[in-house]
Write a structure and sequence with these properties.
CATH architecture of chain B: 3-Layer(aba) Sandwich
Largest interface: A-B, 68 and 73 residues
CATH superfamily of the largest domain in chain A: P-loop containing nucleotide triphosphate hydrolases
Helix content of chain A: 40-55%
Structural class of chain A: alpha/beta
Radius of gyration of chain A: 24 Å
Strand content of chain A: 5-15%
Strand order of the largest sheet of chain B: 3-2-4-1-5-6-7
Largest sheet of chain B: 7 strands, parallel
Order of helices and strands of chain B: EHEHEHHHHEHHEHEHEH
Strand content of chain B: 5-15%
CATH class of the largest domain in chain A: Alpha Beta
Shape of chain B: elongated
Shape of chain A: globular
CATH class of chain B: Alpha Beta
Structural class of chain B: alpha/beta
Number of helices of chain B: 11
Number of domains of chain B: 1
CATH architecture of the largest domain in chain A: 3-Layer(aba) Sandwich
Oligomer: heterodimer
Order of helices and strands of chain A: EHEHEEHHHHEHHHHHEHEHHEH
Chain lengths: 356, 275
């Protein structure tokens, strides 16, 4: 089986497994093969920034990098660090209304750890896809407590617009649009008349009355831009189509990641196909096996490393068809790290990926 | 009996640094010192996820570590019930899609609800101590940044007031401590230092940086005749100790075990450093 580039390549996994570095390496590797590539990271830790030495002020912008490995080879690689505020600005441009930028509550929700991050990431992906400029978009997802948090965010959009509010808004839509000036108030009046008064009364006892009003206005503003959000839902289909997307689920032998690997195989059942890849990162076995320990203590250390990795191997190969192994890279510099991984990717291509 | 312990230990750090194992081991250690400590887990950020599905909780139970597992739905409905003086109405309010949207969209709201309930339990039992296995560094910040955000979001009202009260409680001297867990890798240590600075600017809580999984601290490791890759690991760790030694309060040795329970038991004797 070969790792042919597809329009979307998504790197998913828990934190600390080397996902960001692997995604960057894959993007560089594909660019070396002549693909036009965009690499997006939505990892709030912004490690990619260190890896590719991108500046803070570039966050939210697509930056062209001509020589990511610093080896003089010319490449077609664009990189973007997700910035939720910038995405909101782009939504405003698209919908021709800056309400979404101005809303006080939405501003707070769009902060780096705000509640809209993952939803905005999906939209960012959609907006970049609309440019029709790239052969491949490589996406580095945020480390979730769960491998599938990112995909669930799409579901979040659906719930938000479908069940929660659409009924109310359909009702409102039949009436005239509120005027700009007294919109918050008039909107409230309509909400109240539509029968949710009781709930809002209760809520305002908990959160304060002014908040309920403002939150409704924030929701209303989001609703006005709903087409952008709902368009992004179509993306989900593409992400689940194996002709369009490759999912890389990254796990690592370092520490005890076996629990995560178990969670992964359980949670991912619905999503993964035979074509999905599991990456076992930071493998040491080839190096450990060459070691000939002399003392009892040394033997103990060797066995511990060997057993740890074999346990991961056994579990993963019992659950997944396609496993890619990457050796641990012990280089302190992030750039050297990426270089080494690009080399490993090249080797994988040459030998053809192993089929577990 | 340990005398100068805190009431709430928040264990935070990036994914994969060993927060759960260390939190369980630390809880066990505190128990051996006569402290009534419980392992506290907030993993259920999702309202609908049943408790028994959560790996960390299964593990705590398997190891007989005293456990406090809070359910977001119960915590939220308990809080709303107190405000509205009715269980029935509270159950209705919490179940509405509107309330669920509120919880999932407002950063830190879910953790604030959890934390509020945890503090309530600490108030009810003056001997109780919690070791909080915090979801990830981002989330720990979200949780504490809630003061600032909630001030801006809610502006006034009883939810805001209660959050303020809650935080002044946590910020009281000697009440809480944050242990930032990291690994002996340069990038990870750098990130832990950044996190410490960030937390310092948000919350006046004592924090310690704890380096987990140190191969150099494994008994006898430095006298071994090691293969190249392990020698490199050792060199990196020495570099880290030289550069950051003063800022890292404790180093926890690497465990040679491969089974979760055995790793936790390996860690217990080293947990005195975390108090």
């Amino acid at each position: 089986m070969n790792l042919k580039p597809k329009p979307f390549e998504i790197f998913s996994g828990t934190g600390g497994v080397g996902k960001t570095t692997l995604a960057a390496s894959r993007a560089i590797y594909l660019a070396q093969q002549g693909c036009s590539v965009l690499l997006i990271t939505i990892d709030p830790a912004k490690r990619l920034k260190e890896v590719l030495s991108i500046k803070d002020e570039d966050a939210g912008k697509v930056v062209s990098i001509s020589d990511p490995l610093g080896d003089g080879a010319k490449l077609d690689l664009d990189v973007e660090l997700m910035n939720p505020e910038e995405t909101i600005k782009r939504i405003a441009q698209k919908t021709d209304s800056d309400d979404i930028v101005k809303n006080r509550i939405l501003k707070i929700l769009a902060r780096p750890y705000g509640g809209l991050n993952e939803i905005l990431a999906i939209i960012e992906l959609q907006l970049n896809m609309d440019k029709n400029k790239y052969d491949v978009i490589v996406l580095d997802t945020p480390p979730g407590s769960h491998f599938l948090d990112f995909l669930e965010s799409v579901e979040k959009i659906r719930t938000f617009f479908d069940q929660n509010f659409v009924d109310i808004f359909t009702y409102l839509g039949k009436k005239s649009e509120p005027t700009k000036a007294g919109r918050g108030k008039r909107f409230m009046t309509k909400m109240v008349s539509s029968g949710v008064k009781k709930l809002l009364d209760y809520l305002s006892k908990v959160t304060g009355a002014s908040f309920v009003e403002e939150f409704l206005e924030a929701v209303y503003t989001l609703y006005q831009s709903r087409n952008v959000f709902l368009d992004a839902l179509d993306l989900q289909k593409g992400l689940q189509d194996e002709n369009k997307s490759t999912w890389f689920l990254v796990t690592s032998v370092e520490q005890n990641k076996l629990k995560e690997a178990m969670d992964l195989s359980e949670g991912a059942k619905a999503l993964l196909t035979d074509k999905s890849w599991v990456i076992l990162n930071k493998c040491l076995l080839s190096q450990v096996e060459q070691w000939d320990p002399k003392t009892e203590k040394e033997k103990l250390v060797k066995n511990s490393f060997v057993n740890r990795e074999k346990k991961h191997e056994d579990l993963l190969s019992s659950k997944f068809n396609n496993i890619l192994r990457f050796s641990e890279v012990l280089r302190p510099e992030p750039l050297e790290h990426v270089r080494e991984l690009v080399n490993q990717l090249r080797e994988h291509k040459l030998i053809g990926a192993k089929n577990g | 009996m340990l005398s100068d312990h805190k009431r709430l230990y928040i264990i935070t750090g990036k994914g994969g640094v060993g927060k759960t194992a260390l939190s369980l081991a630390f809880t066990k250690y505190l128990r051996t010192q006569g402290v009534k400590a419980n392992y506290l887990n907030f993993t259920t950020a999702n309202l609908d996820k049943p408790k028994h599905d959560i790996q960390e909780i299964i593990q705590a139970k398997k190891m007989d570590v005293p456990l406090t597992a809070l359910n977001l739905y119960d915590c939220a409905s308990g809080y709303v019930a107190k405000k509205l003086k009715s269980q029935t109405i509270a159950k209705f309010v919490v179940k509405t899609p509107f309330f669920k949207a509120l919880i999932s969209m407002i950063p830190g709201f879910n953790y604030t609800i959890y934390l509020g309930q945890a503090l309530e339990l600490l108030k009810q039992d003056p001997d109780q101590v919690f070791v909080l296995d915090s979801p990830s560094s981002g989330h720990a910040i979200t949780m504490l940044e809630a003061t600032k955000n909630f001030g801006e979001i809610f502006q006034s009202g009883s939810l805001f007031d209660d959050t303020q009260k809650m935080l002044s409680h946590i910020y009281a001297p000697g009440f809480a401590q944050i242990n930032i867990l990291t690994l002996p890798i340069l990038m990870a240590v750098n990130e832990a230092m950044e996190l410490k600075e960030q937390l310092k600017s948000i919350a006046p809580i004592d924090s310690k940086v704890v380096c987990n999984n140190s191969f150099a601290r494994l008994e006898g490791a430095t006298e071994m005749d090691l293969p190249n890759f392990l020698q490199k690991k050792l060199d990196t760790e020495r570099l880290i100790e030289k550069e950051y030694g003063e800022q890292i309060q404790s180093f926890i040795p690497h465990s040679l075990r491969n089974i979760d329970e055995e790793i936790v038991n390996d860690l217990v004797p080293h947990m005195g450093q975390l108090v």
